[in-house]
Write a structure and sequence with these properties.
It is a single chain. The protein is an alpha+beta fold. The protein has three domains: 101 residues, 3-Layer(aba) Sandwich (Rossmann fold); 151 residues, ATP-grasp fold, B domain (D-amino Acid Aminotransferase, Chain A, domain 1), CATH 3.30.470.20; 62 residues, Dna Ligase, domain 1 (2-Layer Sandwich), CATH 3.30.1490.20. The protein has ten helices and 18 strands. Strands 8, 13, 14, 15, 16, 17 and 18 form a seven-stranded mixed sheet that branches. Strands 4-3-2-1-7 form a five-stranded mixed sheet, covered by helices on one side. It is globular. 43% of the residues are buried.
């Protein structure tokens, strides 16, 4: 990199229930990026209005080219560091826009993001991978749940087909409670997945690219103080996260191998976190998080720290990889 500071758009906010989580993560990225190398601009993506925070002002982003005007001068960006959870990034829509305007970005492209955000589609796409998948069905508001033969073993998880951070998710023990749980999930998406609960240990694997190669970080085991790893457990301290996970080296290697295969199959880019349930010797896929949390207390930063990678290094690597020729050629 040359001596000129790179202009980095920290793209955050979004239109899902996870806005506040994204905004907090963006502040962490801005705090830890090397100010001698990067000039950062916080961009808030709203439903209609996109703005940049500049000198205690909120200036409009020109959607024609993702620039803004300040003091009669146009400011362009070298890279978009995307820290939006949910829509419009984890479903791939803003990446499609960035592809159109020619702006490199730090996360997975349209294909990987849209597939991984849709739980049903992701399971279908990965069905031939060497990982087990819990039995599930997908329903919507038109289904008569009372008369349906679910053909699932209870307990089950009922969750929005496209949403994150455990919003709208319920653990249901008997069929009589399914309808109420589905109505709750329908507040967040028009499709709802009903999936058999797998009893086991929750293990998560962080991955990213480094010098064009996919690498894994130390695994984490999540032990929730709640019935499952819900919003409170994730963001309000109601869980114990052990990094590295206390499992055998053989199981650890197997989890990392599976995760790399999934990452490559989906053509992911940047930081990704893949969650599993470990039952006996088998890994069951929970979900692929194409833009995981990046606060100091989030899981991937904990894993990076265990690997000896600081937040400053972790975030800088994402920009360096984003701007590399190899990364741009393979992002879809």
């Amino acid at each position: 990199m040359n001596s000129k500071k790179l202009q980095i758009a920290i793209v955050t906010g979004g239109t899902s229930a996870e806005v506040e989580i994204a905004l907090k993560g963006a502040d962490v990225v801005i705090k830890h990026l090397d100010k001698d190398r990067f000039e950062t601009f916080k961009i808030n993506i709203g439903e209609k209005l996109w703005t940049v925070d500049h000198d205690e002002r909120k200036l409009p982003i020109d959607k024609n080219d993702f620039s803004f005007i300040v003091d009669h001068k146009r400011v362009d960006f070298d890279c978009a560091f995307v820290i939006i959870h949910g829509k419009p990034a984890e479903n791939g829509k803003i990446q499609a826009y960035f592809d159109l305007v020619g702006l490199p970005y730090t996360c997975s492209g349209v294909f990987a993001s849209s597939i991984s955000y849709n739980k049903e589609a992701c399971k279908a796409f990965l069905k031939d991978m060497p990982v087990k998948l819990a039995k599930s069905i997908t329903v919507n508001a038109n289904n008569d749940l009372a008369s349906m033969n679910l053909n699932l073993s209870f307990p089950v998880f009922v969750k929005p087909n496209q949403e994150g951070s455990s919003y709208g998710i319920s653990r249901v023990k008997v069929k009589e409670d399914i309808s109420k749980a589905v109505q709750q999930a329908l507040k967040y998406d028009d499709q709802v997945m009903i999936e058999e609960a797998i009893a086991g240990r929750e293990i998560t694997c962080g991955l990213m690219t480094l010098n064009g190669e996919v690498i894994t970080l130390p695994l984490t085991e999540i032990i929730s103080a709640k019935e499952f790893f819900d919003y409170e457990a994730k963001y309000e301290g109601a869980s114990n996260e052990i990094t590295p996970a206390e499992i055998s080296s053989e199981l650890s290697d197997e989890c990392k191998r599976i995760s790399i295969e999934i990452y490559k199959k989906l053509m992911c880019k940047g930081i990704v976190r893949i969650d599993y349930i470990l039952k006996d010797e088998d890994f069951y896929l929970l979900e692929v998080n194409s833009i995981p949390g990046l606060s100091e207390a989030s899981i991937v930063p904990q894993q990076a720290k265990a690997q000896g990678i600081s937040l400053e290094e972790l975030f800088a690597i994402q920009i360096e990889e984003c701007l590399s020729q190899n990364y741009q050629q393979t992002t879809i």
